[in-house]
Amino acid sequence: MPSSTVSPTAVEQAGAGQYERTERTTPTRSRDRASYDRAHIHAILDAGYVCHLGFVRDGAPVVLPTLYGRIGERLYVHGSTGSRPLRAAGEAEEPGMPVCVTVTHVDGLVLARSAFHHSLNYRSVVVHGTARRVTDPAELSAALDALVDQVVPGRAADSRPASAKELAATAVLRIDLEEVSAKVRTGGPNDDPEDLALPYWSGVVPVAPAYGAPVPADDLAPGIAVPDYLTGR
C-alpha cells in the first residue's frame, strides 16, 4: 500500500481505543446500546459486505445498496464510473461528497407478548464522512482486492486481476473512519409485567446467514476443484 492510503499511525490504532462521540453519532433513543469501541466496530464491519450509501442528489436524499471493504481506518465503497454517487462526487464544489454509510446484521427476531414490544436483535454501524474517489492506481488495486475479499476471504488472490479497461470502468469511493458509531441489541423480549401471564409465546428466533454448497459454472474446465476457502464457509 502506498503512503497515500493508510498511515502507519492509523494501522497501529486499528482495533484499539475509542472513536470520538459526536452529535451525529449519539443516538436519541436507547443510548445504552451505542458503542464507540474501535475493535467492536471493525468486527461488525468485517462481518458483512453489503452497505447502504446515503447522500443528497439534486436536493433529494438517495440511498443505494453496494459492496464495501475495509482496510485499516478506511472504508471503500464500490461503484461504476457512471453511478450517481460518483457523478455527484465529481460535480461537488469541494473535493468529496458528504455521505452516510450504514451496515446492519439481523441476529434474531424478538417476539414479545405484546405487539408493541416486538423487536430485533441486531448489530449495526453508522459512518458519517466525506466520500472521495480513489485515483491512485496502487490504492485502487488494493481497494478492489479488499472488496473481493470482504465477500469471500481469499478470493482476490485466486482470480484474474482487473484489466486496464475494467479498471477504467470501475470506481471506488473512500471514506475515512472518523465519525463512527455502533448500536447493538441482544437478549430477549422486554414484556410488561402485567403481560407475563398472557397465553402468547414469547422469545427469540435466531437469524443467521446460510451458505449452500458451491455450484460450479457450466463451462468450468474439468479438474478444477472447489477451493478450500469455499468449503469452510
TrEMBL record:
Gene3D superfamilies xref list: Electron Transport, Fmn-binding Protein, Chain A
User: What protein is this chain from?
Assistant: Pyridoxamine 5'-phosphate oxidase family protein
Query: Basic and acidic residues bias: where?
Result: 20-34
Polar residues: bias regions: 1-10
Source domain of life is: Bacteria
| InterPro entries linked | Pyridox_Oxase-rel (IPR024747), Split_barrel_FMN-bd (IPR012349)
Start and end residues of each stretch annotated as Disordered: 1-34
Family annotation (SUPFAM superfamilies): FMN-binding split barrel
